[in-house]
Design a protein that fits this description.
Elements: H1 19-26, H2 28-41, E1 56-72, E2 86-96, E3 99-107, E4 112-124, E5 127-135, H3 140-144, E6 173-185, E7 189-199, E8 202-204, E9 207-209, E10 223-232, E11 240-252, H4 255-261, E12 265-279, E13 282-295, E14 302-315, E15 321-331, E16 349-360, E17 363-373, E18 378-388
Parallel strand pairs: 8-11
Antiparallel strand pairs: 1-2, 1-18, 2-3, 3-4, 4-5, 5-6, 6-7, 7-10, 8-9, 10-11, 11-12, 12-13, 13-14, 14-15, 15-16, 16-17, 17-18
Length: 391
């Protein structure tokens, strides 16, 4: 089944061919700020719930995971392993009155990285403000699942949703401000909105590098705006439909990439739509993104566009078994010079199927078989993963 990250967030985090996309992305700040005001106005007053509490509380969770990966292809160009085979995701939280703090650290044999470090304030029962490094809200998958492998049924995340260090094409970690609000619509439905603004990653060593917490930063970070608007037929249910809008100005500090693209900056305008549905034992998640990449090349600037989306279907069976399948497709990505930066990594098409077995209350074994195509290769892949959560 879908395992929403809200179950493990440890605290409430109340849930812009080209011209149109560009205009929308530029106006995402105004639109979502206005929507936030509407959402707040729709929330019935609840004086008792909004009272200031002096209670202090801290909590922690560990998400360990390990996997085996096997690949076969005839070209010798299959991608590198897209993340570590052994890792532990550590979530820490603290609340005191209206103050909130959240830290997420991933530990692997290769690195120790603070993925999220947020300090927040509960302005009201349905409005949170955060400052720090956070997951940008214009991502359908990463809003539901953080770095903890146990939270997602499939082992891999969709290619278009990859983290920066997995050679992702869209920024995912932003340093700045994040606002989240929820509001009731009628008796049962709800509206959830998020708006993030801050410093986008830079491109270095062939891939994006967001603002780091523990390591030194090269500087040159440009602005990022991102937003998410979701309609929930039932405010407390799992179903949701929504739109995603973002604009990221990504500075290039890698000389090789700069020479390839003929530009020192790329503006990414992202528009998307998503749906998540649960009907009896069936679970579905579908998302599609339209991405515009604007490059300031000499003698004139140029723009590229490509699309990418995925559909994942799951079925809950007896004996705690969950078969799943996912289809990922991209449009025009093969003609994009921006995508060609990751010619060996970004998978233009991917089909996968698998089976998850929740063998214990907080442990799972997952088998995943996939066939994928990049700009340079076609290959088959088999993964076996153990994942869990403590406590």
């Amino acid at each position: 089944m879908f395992r929403s990250a809200s179950r493990y967030r440890l605290m409430p985090m109340g849930k812009s061919e080209m011209r149109t996309l560009l205009d929308l992305a530029r106006r995402v700040r105004v639109a979502l700020c206005a929507a936030t005001a509407v959402g707040l106005a729709a929330v019935p007053a609840n004086t008792a719930a909004q009272e200031h509490h002096d209670d202090s509380d801290s909590d922690w969770l560990l998400f360990p995971a390990g996997q085996l990966v096997g690949r076969s292809d005839t070209t010798g160009q299959s991608p590198k392993n897209d993340y570590d085979n052994l890792l532990v995701d550590v979530l820490l939280s603290h609340s005191a009155g209206r103050f909130r703090a959240l830290a997420e650290t991933v530990v692997s044999p290769d690195e120790v990285e603070i993925e999220r470090l947020q300090f927040g304030w509960e302005f009201s029962e349905n409005l949170f403000g955060w400052a720090g490094r956070f997951h940008q809200p214009a991502s359908a998958w990463n809003t539901e699942h953080h770095h903890g492998q146990y939270l997602q049924t499939a082992i891999t995340r969709p290619q278009i949703e990859h983290w920066e260090d997995e050679y992702g094409l869209i920024p995912q970690h932003i340093a700045g401000l994040l606002f989240e609000t929820t509001g009731a619509i009628g008796r049962d439905a709800g509206l959830a909105m998020s708006l993030g603004a801050g410093a986008a990653p830079v491109i270095r060593d062939g891939r994006m590098e967001p603002v780091g917490v523990l390591r030194s930063n090269v500087g040159g970070h440009r602005a990022s705006w991102s937003g998410r608007l979701a309609y929930q037929p039932e405010l407390l249910g799992d179903d949701s439909f929504g739109i995603l809008l973002a604009q990221h100005d990504v500075h290039i500090v890698d000389p090789a990439v700069m020479a390839t693209l003929g530009s020192s900056d790329v503006r990414l305008n992202v528009g998307g739509a998503f749906a998540k549905l649960t009907r009896h034992d069936w679970h579905l998640q579908a998302t599609y993104y339209f991405v515009g990449a604007h490059l300031d090349t000499a003698p004139a600037s140029r723009s590229e566009q490509f699309g990418a989306g995925y559909l994942q279907v799951e079925r809950s069976l007896p004996q705690r078994l969950t078969p799943f399948a996912r289809l990922e497709l991209s449009a025009d990505a093969a003609r994009s010079s921006y995508v060609a930066l990751q010619a060996r990594q970004f998978q233009l098409r991917r089909q996968l199927a698998g089976l998850r077995w929740d063998l214990a209350h907080s442990q799972a074994l997952t088998l995943e078989i996939a066939h994928a195509t990049t700009l340079l290769a076609r290959f088959n892949e088999v993964r076996l993963q153990w994942s869990g959560v403590i406590p």
